[in-house]
Amino acid sequence: MAEKQESQAVSSAQAIRSERDRFVALAFCWADVLIELDADEKVIFAGGPWGPLIGRDAGALTGLALGDLIAEQDRSLVHELLGLARKKGRIENAAVRLQGARGATQPLSFSGYRLDELGVHYFLAFRIGSPGRVGSSDTPVVRDTESGLYDAESFSSVVAERARSGEGLDEHDQMTLIALPDYEDLQGRMDTDAQQALLNTMGVYLKANSVDGDTAARIGDDRFGLVHEADLDLDELQQKIGEFTKEADPTGQGITVEAATVEVDLDTASDEDLANGLVYAINQFRSAEGSDFSVEQLSTNLSSLVSQAANSVKAFKKVVADAEFEVALQPIIDVLTGQVHHYEALVRFNPADGEQSPYEQIVFAEETGLIQEFDLAMVHKVVEWLNGTPRNSTTSVAVNVSGHSVASLDYISGLHDLLTENLWLRGKLLFEITESARMTDLAAANQFIQKLRGEGFPVCLDDFGAGAANFQYLSTMEVDVVKLDGSAVRNAQEARKGKAFLKSLVGLCRDLGVETIAEMVDDEKGLKFIRECGVQYVQGYLFGKPNKDIKTFEKLRLPSLFPQWRG
User: Fold this and answer.
1) 14-128 domain in CATH 1.20.1540.10?
2) What phi, psi does 458 have (nearest 5°)?
3) What is the b/e burial string over 402-428, where b = at least 16 CB atoms within 10 angstroms of the residue's CB?
4) How far apart are CA 42 and CA 61, in angstroms?
5) Which of 499, 557, 558, 555 shows the shortest CA–CA distance to 531?
6) Alpha carbon distance 491, 32 (integer Å)
7) Residue 25, SS3 per DSSP
8) Which of 175, 189, 493, 552 is 20 to 30 Å apart from 90, CA to CA?
9) To 5 degrees, how large is the angle CA 179–CA 182–CA 187?
10) What is the 8-class DSSP label of residue 38?
């Protein structure tokens, strides 16, 4: 028996040495110095030129505790990193400082992993220089390039998926949202390297404390979130983040850290409704500004916000499923002849309220992931309306498609089936892409657009001119029409160089073979201005407010506005 145990011990030792040799061979391709720790976090092997870094050679490190090698201000972080390794099995691209003979070294890149099969061993590798920005376009989720955390939309997707699968918030897991109200001021006091090091440290720390070691996000420049176990000490979490900001701040003062935790009664909503409610809460947290935003207030109201959103989701889904909305139409007019080119279909959720804007409901649908269902229902509603017009009618209608829906496989599949079953729609239906800022994969969006155009359905890009990204859209995607944002048109009328800017924009579109529409033209002065800028079509209250009966627009075509119009 003794011989067998001895043989097993020798075999285990050989396996550990073999694993160490493999680690050394691979790690030296990336790292400058290496260490191996036992279960007590003491050094049992070290390799590489440690002397120039800390004043002690590799051979002198055996038996020392890891804490003896780490700068005092980073010891708590390294402790959290090892906790991350215990959860996830590895540590990736962290930044830590060593304790040298003259004090703390400059930050080093730090990675490693934990091996349990042969007893607990940690293999750690350090590389001179701060970690670079992280994130990969090959991953199915999008990460913030500075912190390595999920971005807001990916975090929303992860949280929603957990909720839908029954792994959402319960007695074991919670979601906490974190804000750094004075982060902009802190940025002004730090150089670029210090900013990057702080975000990297926070990213690693939040990952270490999140469920599965990777359920954390940077939701905005100064806002973060994570899903964590219910027994996590949130006071300590806030304190640690505050310490990180003090260490990064050249003045040493740091900034305030605020946090709010979601607590929901799972009996009041289905997993699906809860998922949508959580996404809504995350988006509210991301978009709230100024006096509208208070983490203290959010902490009080967050749970009720989730519950209210879940109930609103249920109600909105019923509206969509039962098609409990109407379509109002507004004409797009040729600026020279006054003839209707086509109509834009606009939703009215409460027809009894007349002109009430659907803006809030549409934003809600986008923030809760329901916009794809609504967009498809809207197309069906417009097709139903067109089906009631004579087949030889020249009337055509533009239906809106959110930038969210462009990336939805369910929407694309449903739309394709509808168009394939109704070939008579060619020449009668256009598509107007709204909220184009939501499109992150422009190549995929262009593929969607070209498929529609190839099947005989023109595509318009809405809200053009409201941001510099629009020029990237024009260079990446081929469309038939762009609609000039109403606020941009109005601003151009007021600005000294506004007309020159708008004329140049219209000229660029003309050179690309793209037609232009100006929206929100409500008076004759605006009509005259966009004519002078060379815009081809116009839309606005000057020609009538949205109405479900297009006959109401016939009497609004005033000959005085269009000298060439012959009625």
Assistant:
1) no
2) -60, 155
3) bbbbbbbeebbebbeeebeeeeebeeb
4) 9
5) 499
6) 57
7) helix
8) 175
9) 110
10) -
In Å, how far are 142, 164, 237, 302 from 176, measured between CA atoms? 20, 19, 11, 10
Spatial distance between the Cα atoms of 219 and 157, rounded to a whole number of angstroms: 12
324, 309 in Cβ contact below 8 A? no
Listing from the earlier edge strand, what are the strands of the sheet with 121-128? 43-47, 33-37, 121-128, 108-115, 90-96
> What does the block give as tokens for 76?
């708590």
- Non-local (6+) Cβ contacts of 535 within 8 A are 335, 484, 502, 506, 516, 517, 518
In the prediction, which pLDDT does 116 show? Answer: 67
Q: What is the pTM of this model?
A: 0.64
What pLDDT, in 10s, does the model give residues 309-323? 777 878 888 888 888
Fold classified for 152-315: Alpha-Beta Plaits (3.30.70)
**For residues 224 and 220, what is the distance between their CA atoms, to the nearest angstrom?**
7
Q: How far apart are CA 237 and CA 146, in angstroms?
A: 20
- Please choose, from the candidates 380, 379, 371, the residue with its C-alpha nearest in 3D space to the C-alpha of residue 316: 371
Class of domain 323-556: alpha beta
Total length of the chain: 567
* CB-based contacts of 86, cutoff 8 Å, min separation 6: 114
Q: How far apart are CA 403 and CA 35, in angstroms?
A: 49
**Which long-range CB contacts under 8 A does 68-73 form with residues at least 24 apart?**
68/99, 69/35, 69/43, 69/98, 69/99, 70/96, 70/97, 70/98, 70/99, 71/96, 71/97, 71/98, 71/99, 71/103, 71/104, 71/105, 72/99, 72/104, 73/97, 73/104, 73/247
Domain assignments of the chain as residue spans, ordered by start: 14-128, 152-315, 323-556
User: Over the stretch 417-457, which tens digit does the pLDDT of each residue have?
Assistant: 999 999 999 999 999 998 765 677 788 889 999 999 999 99
- Tens-place pLDDT, residues 252-263: 999 999 888 876
Which H or E run contains 179? strand 173-179
